[in-house]
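= Protein in question =
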Amino acid sequence: MQLYVVIVGFPPVMLHRTVFLVLIFILVFLTYPRDNIRMTWWNILLVALSLAVGAYILATFENINSRIAYVDDVTNLDIFFGLACLLVLLEATRRTCGTGLTIIVLAFFAYAFVGPWLPGLLGHPGISIEDLVDLQFLTPGGIFGVATGAVVSFVFFFLLFGACLEQSGASKVFLDTAMSLTAKRTGGVAKCAVVGSSLMGMTSGSAVANTVSTGAITIPMMKKGGYPPVTAGAIEAISSTGGQLMPPIMGVSAFIMAEIVGEPYLTIAIAATLPAILFYSGIYFMVHQYGIKYGIKGDPGKARAFWSIMKSEGYLFLPIAALIYFIASGNTLMSAALKASALVLLLSMIKKDTRMTFRKLASVLIDTGKRTCVVAIPCASAGFITGIITQSGLAAKMNAIFVSLGGGYLLPTLIITMIPCVILGMGMPTVTAYIMVAVTMAPVLIHLGAFPIAAHLFVFYIALMAMVTPPVALAAYAAAGISEANPGKTGWRALSLGFSGFAIPYLVVYYPALTIVDGSVFETIVSFIKVFAIIYLISGVITGYYHKKLTMIERGFGMLTAVVVAVSLDSIVVSLVGAAMFAALMLYHYKFSGVIAAKQAS
């Protein structure tokens, strides 16, 4: 169907999204069979029900397309097929996302009807079954809403691009390049995991998938290099989780963010660049400091030479550069992704090892289909949930609740907002969690004066960090399985390694010039330097090392310096005080650590 869209053009929105989602339903029931028994009567029934829903939409599309929502009558057949669509969605959600998100969808379904009996701000007049079906099934405002539309219109094509890159062997080239750049340095194998996961994570769109695929290579390397199993698993988990923060692709959520914020995707990618660099800088600093702590030196013998890689396989980086160029040149996202995918296919023909055979092409299509399933279904579920939130008036009420709890001040509201963001991120895929918090939490922060993109980056970062936040740290637990370490300890170590993932969202809100799109060049440079210093200071406070072991006094002074720099904001005097404290700490530490006399490679 997507090939038809490429050749002929986009059909009407509702028709396109319906047919696409029905096909995804069918693919889910064929790919994720119940109880691992393929094509049981239950699977056949679900496939038939999916086809019936699609057929009904096609047969009545002219009426659906011309009707006026909440004015024209909803027929009994509309209600039957609308509820059938919801049933199919629930089962597809259970199979692809587990019971957590399924229960949440059911809870919001119940909430639509029990509103009149709920107390206080949670109460609402109730939503009739006709109105629920009207929004969710007959308009592009619920299940077929913005999130599903983003998957249909361009996310699918970026997943195709990622699958093409993977089958061309680019993943191995990314890791080899990362190793060549970091192998000679202190803690080199772990730094390879940080750099390699940042490159690979942006195309996978899943923290757990990236952890498993990259970690299978990097975690044994780190253990062999001297890192304890807990630390090795934690480094891979947090590095893979951050892949969704790294432009130009940023997983899937960034596309949804562009739709919700109403800004071009390029603007979102630019705004996310410096925060992503700072996030990985924090991990890199801590990996280096742990390398010093454990006495792990670089081993250049393990890596290929950088220029050797560039000469033989460097052409596989060209599609990513081309993708950036296509987007910046004003191409549609679909066009940019398709052109970049075509370039991958062409460049792969240069060498036999990377050449796209028919088997690899088949794998590209299969991988794209599977990845689309695990993206489209949670997006459709999120569309249902946000539809209920909007229809019941809960979004506006939550705005009032959080503003009241925060006393009308931004900082306490940020702290209060963080809690539901983390909780939601624990129980569902990142894209679903982001959509929910973007609809309910981000408007609160914007209302209190936060720059809109900064507010959305805040809730996105916090929801994403739930992947390494115990007790449900899915990425950390996946890494622990590979490193053969205690899952709980791995989760807590990953959380400490990823402190920047919690610090940067706050700093972006208070230093919006970090987004580049809000503020002058001078403000952006000053903000970046300040936050870079803060991240470096806190990393040493957590690990207890800069270039040697820190005393408790040094750690305390380092934390105090970080706080002073953070609160300096536009104050020149406080900024100068923070700079003086930072310089004093570094000079003291260097003077008594012997680093100047015998520098370690960083």
Summary: The CA atoms of residues 201 and 243 lie 4 Å apart. The mean pLDDT is 86.
